[in-house]
Design goal:
Strand content: 5-15%
Number of helices: 6
Number of strands: 5
Radius of gyration: 17 Å
Number of domains: 1
Helix content: 40-55%
Mean pLDDT: 95
CATH class: Mainly Alpha
Low-confidence stretches: none
Strand order of the largest sheet: 3-5-4
Order of helices and strands: HEEHEEEHHHH
């Protein structure tokens, strides 16, 4: 299927954001923005789960229970991600790199399913990774799933309200093109947060 003209720039933006975040997490280099390659060592388990401030929300072993301010651990498997029912704590808890990357992978996987899959997956179905390698693999698979859903959307689909039935956002009330734009924004802003957390981890304790 030919990619609709309106989707082309959003798809290119998505691909570039995924590539840049993937390189930022797994290295060995990342584009600095001026064409210079900057070393980016692969993320470790310690960094993935690093809590830079007290009372972070993160991903945890189910036997440990939720962290401060959380009421449950969402997701499938041995690990879960801190969460609480709406209304969420205010101010929001600081979230770890693990929390943010798990959130990204979940929303991509579920939106792919609710656009071009079974339209049935919930947060409780999504496996939460407890290690860096698993999280990187999950992100790659979830990005590929969402990209596949995009490639299956024609012009009519882009204008269809509720083409995505993702239940944790406004998708059922939005044209699909708006959902595509929103997913890119999620990827861009959480990707930037994750990149900053990598920088903070590198210089923690004054170490360069």
């Amino acid at each position: 299927m030919n990619v609709p003209d309106r989707l082309v720039p959003l798809l290119k933006q998505f691909d570039w954001a995924c590539e840049r975040l993937g390189n930022r997490l797994a290295g060995p280099f990342v584009d600095s923005g001026n064409g210079t390659d900057v070393a980016a060592p692969v993320m470790t388990d310690d960094e993935y789960l690093w809590e830079p401030v007290p009372d972070c929300w993160s991903v945890r072993l189910r036997g440990s229970g939720p962290g401060p301010g959380g009421t449950s651990l969402t997701g499938a498997g041995e690990w879960g991600r801190d969460t609480a029912p709406f209304p969420h704590p205010a101010p929001p808890p600081f979230t770890t790199l693990a929390w943010r990357l798990s959130h990204l992978s979940e929303l991509l996987t579920l939106r792919a399913d609710h656009s071009a899959g079974t339209r049935s997956l919930t947060r409780e179905d999504h496996r939460v990774a407890g290690d860096a390698a698993g999280a990187l693999a999950d992100f790659g698979a979830s990005a590929a799933a969402w990209r596949g859903a995009l490639l299956g959307a024609d012009d009519a689909a882009l204008d269809t309200v509720g083409y995505s039935t993702y239940p944790y956002g406004s998708d059922p009330e939005d044209p699909f093109l708006d959902t595509v734009w929103w997913v890119n924004q999620e990827l861009l802003h959480h990707g930037a947060e994750i990149a900053l957390l990598r920088d903070l981890y590198r210089v923690r304790g004054g170490l360069a």
